[in-house]
TrEMBL record:
<protein>
    <submittedName>
        <fullName>DUF1778 domain-containing protein</fullName>
    </submittedName>
</protein>
<comment type="similarity">
    <text>Belongs to the TacA antitoxin family.</text>
</comment>
<keyword id="KW-1277">Toxin-antitoxin system</keyword>
<dbReference type="InterPro" id="IPR010985">
    <property type="entry name" value="Ribbon_hlx_hlx"/>
</dbReference>
<dbReference type="InterPro" id="IPR014795">
    <property type="entry name" value="TacA_1-like"/>
</dbReference>
<dbReference type="Pfam" id="PF08681">
    <property type="entry name" value="TacA1"/>
</dbReference>
Length: 95
């Protein structure tokens, strides 16, 4: 399927000869047929991992803020919530 994707973008990087030897050795051991496919696969896996981790952290921080704002904020309950609370209290006290 990958060969069907139009690859019109190019990335060029410079690396030390030691890094390139390590990358080539890893590519040989990984079973990837080409050096490019190895680099793309490894970089993509790492990129997806970083994105996933950072999005979890951002969502967690956003959720934490929403929770603490709801619990400790100075907002008055809306009309529906106040009505529901009165209804609940009347049912509890009538038992």
């Amino acid at each position: 399927m990958e060969s069907q994707i139009n690859k019109d973008e190019r990335i060029e990087i410079r690396v030390s000869s030691q890094d390139k030897r390590i990358f080539k050795r890893a590519q040989e051991l990984s079973g990837d047929k080409t050096f490019s496919s190895f680099i793309i696969r490894v970089v993509r896996m790492q990129a997806e991992s970083i994105i996933s981790e950072k999005e979890r952290i951002l969502a967690s921080n956003r959720d934490r803020k929403v929770f603490f704002d709801a619990v400790f904020g100075n907002q008055e309950p809306n009309k529906n919530l106040a009505t529901a609370a009165r209804r609940y209290k009347s049912k509890i006290t009538s038992k």
